[in-house]
Amino acid sequence: MVLPLKAEHASQTEDFESTAKIVKFAVVPKKHEEPDQSPKEELMSFEAAMLPHLDAAHNLARWLLRNEQDAQDVVQEAYLRAFRSFSGFHGTNGRAWLLTIVRNTSYTLLKKNRAVDFTTPFDEEIHATGHESVSPATILEHSEDAELIREAMDELPAEFREILALRHQEGLSYKEIADIAQIPLGTVMSRLARARDKLKEYLAARMSK
Amino acid sequence: MDCREAIKLMDGYLDCELDPITSQTIEQHLRECGRCDQAYKTHGSLIRAIGNATPYFKAPAELRERIQSSLREETTEHPVRNGVPGAQVVFHKRQPEPRSILSEIPWNWLGLAAAIILAAIIAFNVVPRAQRPEADQFLATQLIASHARSLMANHLTDVASSDQHTVKPWLDAKLDFAPAVVDLSEKGFPLIGGRLDYLDNRPVAALIYQRRQHFLNLFVWPLGPGRAGSTKAMTRQGYQLLHWVDSDLNYWAVSDINEKELQQFKQLFEEQISHH
Fold it and tell me: ipTM higher than 0.90?
């Protein structure tokens, strides 16, 4: 299988963890060259491909930004950005592609607001626990309390909120998560495990209050 | 498998994201270890319960309308939407490194200096290297695992291309070194693409070549301090490994093709590089 790779099939996103540009390629069979679409047709095919993922986009932005207004602004901005590079997108996983843009746009805003907290609070010492008394059974009992879970989730660093939303709510594979969160595949499992442990810990902390 | 390892892999097992062999090993361990089995069940039911109860923020209807109207505005503002400048690939601007400064240095002196440094490096490194064969064993295991994983998990390439001029800039942009990338289609080893991998405690480049129905992973990374290079071939678990060093880069080729073909590959690869 030897496929041509072309610049116009690349979508470009920003990487927050470095200044490097990330260029993603979609693999397209050669015959897939399409005649140019009219702007109206392109808008229609964009909406058909991307609007079904609006809930997923909004949910991710809402968890990352913890604020409804910001989430809506970011999702709108992300859709515009996606539309502008849509002619270069020929992949099959539209949801993952859109979520990558939503994630990047969210971090741009978080960074602007200096609210990128992906390294700050998960210092084990800060949150050293005294909640061993809260048994798994107790957590399980309260685990249907959506409000409690929302509060505990919001306390987590952004990279944990993001990975939990992508896995638990969107049911994405580790590979898709690795692409969206721009981390190596091998990091997904360990980050997810840490995020879940932290969430359990925060839940226990809230219950013992 | 011990408990520590089982706990480490538990989330991957829970999410059905482990390869079949590792999953079986975990299952085996859970059957034998009551404590881990209990931990697995508790963790699993908690994670599921939390996952189910986490509020999902659906997009409000007005957001959809806002987006649609802003998209319409965008279309009327810029009626022609092809050849988007934002989608241009940066690396086309990359030029080969300037050579002018280097060409002015008297080469015979450089050659002598290089020979002295090389002699010093060999003297300092060959001895400690020879004393730790287990490091090589460990690396070989890592290499085979990486090769096997690349074929298993639908993750053979990050950048799929037979064009060395596409693969190389892609890798260069992500690594702190610039591996040579050559296509050997004409010689019977077509280039399939490139991938990032993690070996020997650092990110490495993996170039994927094909030989008939077989794949070959060529792992490349800079020769670290204390690592002297020599060509060596070995066979492990039915895989052929071939190691060589060229200027300051480490090469490890891993494949299930036979040793003769792997040697042939090395020769072709080196020939091709020297043409560049």
Answer: no
